[in-house]
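Practice problem: predict the structure.
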Amino acid sequence: MENMIRTARQWMNVRLRDGFLTDKFEVGIEEFVDFAQRHLELMDGTKIRCPCNDRKCQNQSFQELDIVRFHLEKNGFVRDYYVWYKHGEPVVQQNSNQNVQRSVESDVAIEYAQPNNACQAMLMDVIGPSFNPNVTEDIPNLATQELYEMLKASEQEVWPGNPYGHSKLSTVARLLNLKAKHHFSERCFDDICQFLFELLPENNVMTDSFYSTKKLMQGLGLPVEKIHCCINGCMIYWGEDSELISCKFCNHPRYKRHHASNRQKTNVPHKKMYYFPLTPRLQRLYASKATSNDMRWHKEHNTEESVMRHCSDSPAWKHFDQIYPSFAVESRNVRLGLCIDGFQPFGQTGQQYSSWPVIVTPYNLPPYMCMKDEYMFLSIIVPGPRNPKEKLDVFLQPLIAELKHLWEVGIKTYDVSSKQNFQMRAVLMWTISDFPAYSMLSGWSTAGKLACPYFMENSDAFSLSKGGKISWFDNHRKFLLMEHPFRRNKKTFRKGQTVLKGAPPIRSGVEILELIENYGFKKP
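Answer:
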């Protein structure tokens, strides 16, 4: 079968004749584009993977249809791409006894992405377009098994032969949407489930309570933890402090005081934060064929000397690989970046409220994926209304503990591309923030004459004579060559000032660690 496809598509090797595009090649391009457009689940919006022979494409980048046509006319198809498996065509492998057909971009994805079942399409968005629960070699871990169960739930009808084809998953998803929209209580939701269970035929599989509905949907969603906080931001009631009823620093009570007329028995905290565990989100990237191969892109992509297209081409990345070879040898280990910034969610109403989201991004993915919203994982929402400032580290404790565990121990993870379990580890490579948030993350004061975290006391900052503000003007001349005329210029820069000293040395990590130890800042 594969040989027949190869023979029928020999036109892919005959792009030019006498310097002009052949008619068969132009017709073949249109045939390919029409085929790719029919598999929406493998497209990125209106874009498809470009299979041209340029090293920047080769089925790695998504492009608009017109650009794909132009690239194919200019560069031709990538070598030996006779079976368009990256665009939804089944891969056919020859066996000694029979032809065994395996679809890399599985027919399961095509079936479950039909528009008549929006809930199934939503499920495929979560687990990836190439998800196939029937082909395994290792036993998947618990998280992957939950995805399998969700897939089976999406197939199971509420009762056989129902006219609208509602599945168990789509029904409970619709009910949860109504609950959020119309503010049902849990008791009301339980009564509705019981009534529907009685109303439907006897062989229905309708859930009977809000609890059973949440258990069913738990495999689709990802966990979130609500952690109580001190109203002053002194501490969070987490880990060893989870049972405390008052702040151990300011003694402020954990819960709001009940009024005499209020019969409410549930304790309501003064403040709480939301923490979204990172580990299951990273595991989900390997549970889907849509992303599992791309998580090794940083190791397998073509590199060019002195050209940096991705973080993996940077000296810092390569230096880390040299320092920690045991981590670098497993290409599926995850490199992370952390970003934090504050915003006012109620800015238009005039209410002063500052919230601080913490976002973690995996940099294993190629550039056209790692900067997309769906791969920027919201990990923490630091509550307002005030800026946490130097107390930000209090709210980062759960994330730091999880990152330390992923670095030191790791977690057993199922890789669907190789159908094997492996011990996934992770490391936080960078933090990305503006200068005020840099101060909150690092603890280094970004105000005053010592604000520069590199030159510290070697900075030439000075106070303005009238305004009193700190200025770093004329701090750059010391980086010039010693014979540069600007160093002796007394008029253009600060009046009457010449610069004769050289640039201060940049401290290494070891030197900075020694400084911290001398100041007594390092924790035992």
